[in-house]
Design a protein that fits this description.
alpha/beta, GroEL, 2 domains, six-stranded mixed beta sheet, 4 helices, 9 strands, BBS10, BBS10 protein
Length: 213
């Protein structure tokens, strides 16, 4: 329930509404409007290639070597974004914060980015779509990208002064997520209403719980 409702103080209760899909309570790190069929990729690590493996020391002997290393990273990052584009991936959902070079090439190749998602949000998206977060690409940049989720829409949403991301998924199960936008004059009232609604949903779950015959 925590990931399927958003409390908005400063508005009358009558402004409350139910929206299809889910609302991620953070802004786009990069937003590229897209139409038609969309694919989303879930990741839990930065996409900028590392110069060395964990626990391995990387020694640079000159400024020239350092600049060459940065150019290598830049080329690898651009190649990855080109690969996402060619696979029709237009939305990157990340629990990690992505570096500026990733955001730059995401904008260049039409990939929207939402970063710093919580583990609960990532788990909910995985449950809805049946797709697990992608493992790091490492040196295998040519491998096929198969673990992507179908997205029906992806757009900004303004809740008073807070910029959010409103996204819909093609659900892989019977669960069709909707998000409750709960409005009230102050936070305390919203918290009371949210708690009452959660209790009501819990009661309904118990009432309609399947009984084995």
């Amino acid at each position: 329930f925590a990931e399927l409702h958003a409390a908005v103080p400063g508005l009358p209760l009558a402004s409350s509404r139910v929206l299809p899909g889910i609302v991620l309570r953070r802004d786009f790190a990069a937003y590229c409007p897209a139409h038609g069929e969309l694919r989303a990729l879930l990741v839990t690590e930065p996409l900028r290639p590392a110069l060395t493996a964990p626990g391995v020391e990387f020694v640079v002997d000159s400024e020239g070597q350092y600049r060459a290393s940065l150019r290598w990273i830049t080329r690898r990052t651009e190649a990855l974004m080109k690969r996402l584009q060619s696979n029709n991936v237009k939305l990157l959902l990340s629990s990690a914060k992505q570096e500026e070079v990733v955001i730059y090439y995401a904008k260049l190749y039409g990939v929207s980015v939402v970063e710093c998602l919580s583990s609960e949000e990532m788990a909910l998206i995985s449950e809805i779509t049946g797709v697990s977060p992608c493992t790091p690409f490492g040196d295998n940049m040519d491998r096929e990208i198969t673990e992507t989720a179908a997205v029906t829409f992806c757009q900004p949403l303004l809740l008073v002064s807070k910029r959010c991301v409103h996204v819909g998924f093609s659900s892989a199960c019977a669960f069709q997520p909707h998000c409750l936008i709960l409005c009230g004059p102050v936070d305390g009232v919203n918290e009371q209403h949210a708690a009452a609604l959660q209790e009501a949903f819990t009661m309904l779950q118990q009432v309609f719980k399947t009984v084995d015959q």
